[in-house]
Amino acid sequence: MKGKIADGEARERLIMWIRRRMAEFGITPQALAESLQYDRDHPPLYRDARGNEWNGKGAMPHWLSAARNAGVNPDFFRIDPAPQASASDSSNEPKQPDLFG
After folding, report:
1. In what helix (H) or strand (E) does residue 24 lie, and over which residues does it extend?
2. What is the rounded (10 degree) CA torsion for 45, 46, 51, 57?
3. What angle do CA 49, 54, 19 make, to 5 degrees?
4. How many degrees, rounded to 5, is the angle at CA 38 between CA 37 and CA 42?
């Protein structure tokens, strides 16, 4: 295994690197946990092809306002909510969406 890093060692190095960056930028574990919880509580409503997202709160981001100013309806970027499983759907098997009908 000459020149290669074992998975466990790579993981430890990554954890140390993340901890150093968090300390460098003053990010506490609690602040990180709160940010992750906020993201869970406020999922994005809009997403473009480049991965830019907006949850509908605050000012409209530049990428979305630029698209709107170019004549694109912002609803084009709206993310469809995940379908809720109904009580009558007892099958847990994934279903292929019907793309042609």
Report:
1. helix 7-24
2. -70
3. 95
4. 120
Report residues of the chain scoring pLDDT below 70: 1-3, 81-101
Rounded-to-integer distance, Cα 39 and Cα 17, Å: 24
The amino acid at residue 70 is A
Cβ within 8 Å of residue 31, ≥6 positions away: none
According to DSSP, residue 65 is labeled H
Note if the pTM is more than 0.70: no
How far apart are the C-alpha atoms of 14 and 1, rounded to whole Å?
20
d(CA 97, CA 92): 15
Nearest alpha carbon to residue 30 among 21, 22, 20: 22
Q: State pLDDT tens for residues 14-31.
A: 999 999 999 999 999 999
Q: Which tokens sit at 10?
A: 């790579």
